[in-house]
Amino acid sequence: MRTLCSSTLIGEFFIIGFAGLVAMKDQDLSTSTVWTVCGIAMFLSVALCGMVTRPGGVALGWALQIALVASGFFVPMMYILGVVFAALWWASVHFGRKVDEAKARFAAQAESSTTADAA
């Protein structure tokens, strides 16, 4: 799960940065506000790469997905990209867990066959 989720989060890191560049063109937003918010979101996306497998890591990832969709209020294209990345996040979590379960079953089978061979 860690690899799939981390790949999604790193992709979001770049999308958030590009959205910040677009948001700077809005006259109603100050540059410092845009880069403070984008910087926090970009840091969170990178930090979550290491926290995905810890308790609450996936929930924080969902919070980031909600924030990404909500950023569409300032950069309308982010509605679409936010939904796309939320779908990628769901797929990463869902299929990542299935891969982890399959790896655990395979490791258990390999260990049981090793102990049976030794006896």
Key words describing this protein structure:
mainly alpha; 4 helices
Protein architecture, described:
The protein has 119 residues and is mostly helical. It has 4 helices and no strands. Helix 1 packs antiparallel against helix 2.
Topology:
Elements: H1 2-23, H2 31-51, H3 57-70, H4 77-118
Helix pairs in contact: 1-2, 1-4, 2-3, 3-4
Question: What is the overall silhouette?
Answer: elongated
Helix/strand-derived category reads mainly alpha
* Tally of alpha and pi helices: 4
- Alpha carbon gap, first and last residue: 35 Å
Estimate percent helicity.
over 70%
At a glance:
This protein is mainly α and 119 residues long. Helices cover 83% and strands 0% of the residues.
